[in-house]
Description:
The structure holds 2 protein chains of 2 kinds. Chain A is an alpha/beta fold.
Amino acid sequence: MLFSVIKTGVFQDSVSLMLLTKKVSTLPGVDRLSVMMGTPANKEIFQNTGLSTPEVEAAKPSDLCVVVDAASADVVDEVMKGIEAFLSDQSVRRKGADYSQTKTLDGALSQIPDADIALISVAGRYAARLAGQALDRGLNVMMFSDNVSTEDEAALKKRAHEKGLLVMGPDCGTSMIGGQPLAFANVNKDGTIGLIGASGTGLQAVMAGIDFYDEGLSHAIGLGGRDLSSEIGGTSALDAIDFLARDPKTEVIGFISKPPAKAIRDKIVSALEAQPKPAVAIFLGEEGKADEGKGLTFAGTLDEAAFLAVQALKSVQASKCRAALTPQQRQIRGLYCGGTLASEAALLMGRGLNVPFTGAHDEGIMFSADGSTVIDLGDDVYTVGRAHPMIDPTLRGEMIVEAGKDSAVAVVLMDVVIGYGAHEDPAGQAAEMVEAARKARTCGGDVTYVAYVCGAKNDPQNLEAQKAKLIEAGVIVADSNREAVEFSLSIISEGKDLSSPANGKEAPKLLNHRPKVVNLGLRSFADDIHKSGGEVVHVNWAPPAGGDETLIAALDRLA
Amino acid sequence: MSNFLKEANEKVVEKIKAARPYLIDVKPAAEVISAFAGRKLLLHAGPPIKYEEMTGPMRGACLGALLFEGWAKDEAEADKMLKAGEIEFAMCHSVDAVGPMGGITSPNMPVLVVKNDTDGNFAYCNMNEGIGKVMRFGAYGDEVQTRLRWMRDTLAPALSAALATMPQGIDLTAMMAQAITMGDEFHQRNIAASALFLRSVAPALSRIEISNEKRAEVTDFLGRTDQFFLNIAMAYCKAVMDAAHSVGEGTIVTAMTRNGKMFGVRVSGLGDQWFTAPVNTPVGLFFTGYSQEDANPDIGDSAITETFGVGAMAMIAAPGVTRFVGAGGFDDALEISNEMAEICLAQNPALPIPTWNFRGACLGIDVRMVVESGITPVINTGIAHKDPGVGQVGAGTVRAPMACFEQALLALDKKYGK
């Protein structure tokens, strides 16, 4: 037998109600049970599942409808007790929250007048109207909500574009703006790669991939799955590319998409090629393709996209180092403690500078051409009367300072070898010497210091801590000796100037700080924003005018 | 449309902010309200209502008024006359007046005369009788009659004479600005304002020609009647909101009132129409021996204070009474005021609230914001016993019914919607 109870004025989001339904369904005597708000869509579900009653039919969208299929009315009392307990628990948790809460968007804006983003996760039928209200109030919008019509989406994005705002979504699950994770997002290191994703987990996979390479993100802008369809025309994608191109922090742009409409894909590609920063794009289903001189590389897979973005970032780094050189600075000074590492460096330098590898190592000089040298400080000539440089790096330190003062030196390349037997803090010593060299330099131009740390994660000096000391001192730390040499070579060779990446236009306001958020809908998103250290006001949203369509239409006419 | 309504509402808000009502006199109602002339008329609270439909407190007050006026010699005769339709009724609001609870006002009851200097309009309200067995809550026995006569014969002339010596009367805006910083919200708590009022009339009272015994009675009454200022605040709010209503456009609520059966709402852009719906019953704390069962449904013109933006709208200003009116403490009071701010267009710079970080009291309830948000105004209120003759049994809060605002919204749509 069906029993129904209607509770007015207790709006709850669908996620909470699904949890509640699951919980009280286990009560003894309950055959079937459904707890939903009395929206038209939910009433249909009640009908389709044979759980509709006249009371439910008469309910408003702001009414909580409880329908129990049970043998006796006593069961209903137990169910209602369970529901009351759940609701009062919700209300206690609501009161215990550490962030402000309101019932309306305007109420939230009176709490944070300088809010940047409305994060909307309300029922789809109300989401577009709310997004429009947010845009009217100068807020950018992230719509987690789905079931928004294409027409509404197109209109919202057009309006946002005209106002210089961004609409992420609908159906956008992932974003991270200025260090603020929104909805489903990973905690990435702060960095300079800016991502745009028309795909939630695609974006997350690239975010995670970049983290794997120890690089960070400036922003990750979600678009929602439909943005690149021909109906929407990629409005938000193009705006996001423009935003990242204008953002001074972003140095590399990554674009991630499921297969888009052909015409839109071409628009995106043109936009990525037209802006000055190196870019990587993946359109799932397409093959990878190297940069054809337009600054855009195509990845075939998500991991490749992450890898290529990190590579692009390195080319920007090299370009910045190049830009800081005087014309006299043409030389690399390789100062090695490890013989084989020095030997490998010599080999690679020879290849890079077109000098045949001889294997000579007179006086520990492994390589010498065009003024660039690689010296093995472990060679016998340097260890007479002093310990091996892996144990006592004093001499190498002095040579770092000498090289750093040299007006012809562009790069000082070094190895830092850790593990048992080695100096207890070789990176600390090297960092100290780099700083001393910088202070001692009197001629123009900046010297780039590049290091490879040869060690294992569990070494007593702690690999990560050693790397961190070098990075702190402004040393570029490569993941291998090869990478260190190749990076050094790229600094003294010709290359595209990527050193001043912002295109001179005004930086977008949304991206120049950690954004403040008005959260409308799912409370857990507000909890997470608060937990992540962000500023948020949560709106305990309920359908406008209790969901009455006539009144909503009147409100819109009077708006 | 949005710009037209925005500008119209701004005009209404400006009227409210600019208003400067003064208490200038205390007079028998019939002397200042012409509607009384030549007939047996009673004013009542709320939207229009017939005697038969009135709830207990208002019926009791009607009986009391007939006895006070000498129109009937006893309760039975009064009831008969009322049932026979020998007495006419008009809502207080229709004659620039307001009245608390039953709001029953008869020709010889003295009323406070408040004049809004900015617009030149007047507003009237009878005087507060204190607590216990009082007519506004439906009591009408000897104790009530004795007090009403004393108020007519002693209190009113004394105050009238005292006010006559004050060139402009009393600047109520200044007095309320001071009292709100002293913990009054002007509906449930008026202790500070009542004390300030006595402080300001005392020198004048000491100089008027009156027996020392009467002077002592008057100062004693004013000194112990904590809610004396409520009725002054009501007349003040009525004067302000009538001036606001005169703009004739916009979506701002300019009056809320209840008659025990129906709740009525008036809107700046909708002329003299009242949008009505059945009242809710207040919930709160009760005097020993009484319970929620005894509570009369919502009644009185005193919701004019909330219309203006004080009372429950400014709950946060009066931490002292938040428990008494059923709210769970300071945090709940804060939540209520924050919630009320979400349905208001502005805040009143003349009434900064210290406990609200000096935010001004709410100002300008917008019908659209009420309907959109589902938030109805909260009202602080005394709770009358549902039977005539018993009086006040508690105090609490009550919500205005949403249906009033929904009807008003549809009427606004008809007038302004494309």
